[in-house]
Design goal:
The complex is a heterodimer of chains A (249) and B (326).
Chain A: E1 3-14, E2 17-28, E3 32-36, H1 43-50, E4 58-63, E5 66-67, H2 73-78, E6 81-83, H3 96-104, H4 125-134, H5 150-163, E7 168-172, H6 180-193, E8 198-202, H7 206-212, E9 215-220, E10 223-228, H8 230-235, H9 237-245
Parallel strand pairs in A: 3-8, 3-9, 6-7, 7-8
Antiparallel strand pairs in A: 1-2, 1-4, 4-5, 9-10
Chain B: H1 22-37, H2 44-66, H3 75-90, H4 96-118, H5 123-143, H6 170-192, H7 195-205, H8 207-212, H9 217-243, H10 253-266, H11 273-287, H12 294-309, H13 313-322
Classes of the chains: A alpha/beta (249), B mainly alpha (326).
């Protein structure tokens, strides 16, 4: 197996406070990798470092063998490494169709052409509808995204992300704030989209982590505590101690 | 919360038309007819002033309402273009269209320079940086040789359009101003409804998400900033030809404040709001001029009332009632 995303000696300090300390992480190609840990373990910081929304104080990140430590977040998205957000990330005042089309519009490169009519974008409508159908939002195509329920917004976000045809997805708590029924549907969706992609996710819901992930990295106080499959990790005494010690259920 | 629960699924909405909605086209046509007839009913210079400010406010609205960027220094582009256009007509003897072009180009360059620094900051800091640079432009205008300091550039000649058509009469000039400002406003409308405009709205709505889709947002912001400054400059350049004058009033920070007021009063993010806001404010200044400083007080009251009572502005309010984008 080859590594899709690799981090070596990753470190992030905020004014003397070390949020992430010397983390090594290897996400193998074609796997679902989960990043877990008690609150304040540095999961989100780590995630933001990997997606370049934060710059590391020290360390090196490579994607498909290419050093991406100094790239901007937009450049990383262009390499096929696309992230999602904890709070549902949609463009609220735009229609569902326009939301998805904005991802497809990236195929034409940069859209600096302010003198052209937006009619030129209608060639992406059909593909956009395909992605919208796939997540079950067909009848909402012309609704403003703001009018959708929470679960539907997340579905729209996934449709938009998939429209970019990313090689690797970084999901920031994909199940946050969801009811059981939605959790099952999104789990199934993640399993399906993972077939030919690599996924790294931060997730609190341990049932989801257990059922989905091939490999799990446990973080605590900014450091890697344990790594392995669910069976290995859940038996590790330091992991049990960290979770119970931190007062986590 | 289910994404596919048929019980809560409303009927699919009809497909909206692409491009400008029909009712907006109709309003533009009616507006154009009214404007063509206007100089026979209203003093043409007053009508031209309204049109210049309508373009200025619409240019500002492009940045605020669609780019989500609040600039507190738009007088810099309006005023500097007005100086350059006045200078070009008076000292270089350029024809009006070339003088206006020169002023607009100056505003574009100034916008590009200031914008490239200002977009590195966000929110209130962005507004403060734009204000700081506008103040620098103001003091430059006060000190520089060619601006005439306190006197400004006075008695700018009205040269012949293209060197052929005399613009001495207010009527002839009116139609030149109508073509330029109306054209400018239609151009802004095109920008909003372009592929670029789509990305712009996305950045306004959710910047981190736009980044994660691979858009280099700072380039889009710089571009809309420059476009907005350019069009504000076009308005200022035309105004200098109308009043045959460029003065410190046009670069003063109060001018930056007035354009914010016009845009918010009319309705930011709407197509027709800034034009209406400009018309109201200019009319007030003209007809209440005898009240002196009270005009400023009235403007202040209107501003406070507007922010408290109808945040979406007059046109925004009408748009909500009629459920149509205006």
């Amino acid at each position: 197996m080859t590594a899709a995303l690799e981090a070596r000696g990753l470190r992030k300090e905020f004014k003397g406070f070390v949020a992430v300390d010397d983390v090594d992480l290897t996400v193998e190609k074609g796997t679902i990798h989960a990043l877990i840990g008690p609150n304040g373990a540095g999961k989100t910081t780590c995630f933001n470092l990997l997606t370049k929304f934060l710059s590391p104080t020290a360390g090196r990140i490579t994607y498909e063998g290419r050093d991406i430590t100094r790239l901007s977040p937009a450049d990383i998205a262009r390499l096929g490494l696309v992230r999602s957000f904890q709070i549902s990330a949609v463009f609220p005042d735009l229609s569902v169709l326009e939301n998805v089309r904005l991802a497809l519009q990236r195929q034409r490169g940069d859209s600096y052409d302010f003198w052209r009519s937006e009619r030129v974008l209608s060639r992406y409508d059909e593909a956009a509808r395909g992605h919208i159908d796939e997540v079950g939002l067909t009848e909402f195509a012309h609704h403003r995204a703001a009018e959708l329920s929470y679960g539907r917004k997340r579905a729209l976000e996934i449709a938009t992300t998939l429209a970019l045809e990313p090689q690797m997805l970084l999901l920031d708590e994909p199940m946050a704030g969801m009811g059981q029924e939605d959790v099952e549907r999104i789990s199934a969706l993640i399993r399906r989209i993972a077939k030919n992609r690599t996924i790294l996710m931060v997730e609190h819901n341990l049932n989801v982590v257990a059922s989905l992930s091939d490999r799990i990295t446990v973080l605590a106080r900014g450091e890697v505590l344990a790594e392995g499959d669910y069976a290995t990790v859940s038996q590790a005494p330091e992991v049990i101690e960290a979770y119970i010690g931190a007062g986590h259920d | 919360m289910s994404t596919m629960d048929p019980a809560t699924s409303p009927a699919a909405r009809p497909e909206p038309s692409v491009g400008m909605p029909t009712h907006q086209k109709a309003i533009f046509v009616v507006l154009l007819i009214l404007l063509v007839a206007l100089p026979w009913f209203v003093y043409p210079v007053f009508a031209m002033k309204v049109m210049c400010f309508a373009l200025f406010a619409s240019a500002f609205n492009l940045l605020l309402g669609f780019g989500g960027l609040l600039s507190f220094g738009h007088a810099a582009y309006f005023g500097m273009a007005s100086y350059v256009a006045a200078h070009a007509a008076k000292v270089w003897g350029l024809t009006p269209e070339l003088a206006v072009l020169a002023g607009t180009a100056a505003a574009a360059l100034l916008g590009l320079a200031i914008g490239s620094l200002a977009i590195r900051r966000q929110g209130i800091y962005f507004a403060m940086v734009t204000l700081a640079f506008a103040q620098m432009v103001y003091f430059f205008a006060l000190q520089a040789e060619f601006t005439g300091g306190e006197d400004g550039i006075q008695s700018v000649p009205r040269n012949d359009l293209f060197g052929l058509i005399p613009l001495e009469s207010n009527m002839a000039l009116y139609f030149f101003v109508l073509v330029v400002t109306f054209g400018g406003i239609l151009f802004i409308h095109r920008i909003i409804h372009s592929p670029f405009g789509q990305v712009l709205k996305a950045i306004r709505e959710n910047e981190p998400r736009a980044v994660s889709l691979g858009y280099r947002v700072n380039r889009y912001k710089l571009m809309v900033f420059t476009l907005s400054a350019t069009l504000a400059g076009l308005a200022g350049a035309v105004k200098s030809q109308v009043f045959q004058l460029a003065s410190l009033t046009d670069v003063h920070w109060t001018m930056s404040g007035e354009v914010v007021l016009m845009t918010l009063l009319g309705g930011m993010g709407t197509v027709f709001g800034p034009m209406l806001g400009a018309a109201i404010i200019v009319t007030m200044q003209n007809y209440f001029a005898t009240l002196g400083a009270w005009v400023t007080v009235i403007q202040g009251v209107i501003f406070v009332a507007g922010v408290l009572l109808f945040r979406e502005g007059i046109v925004g309010l009408i748009a909500r009632w009629t459920k149509k984008p205006l």
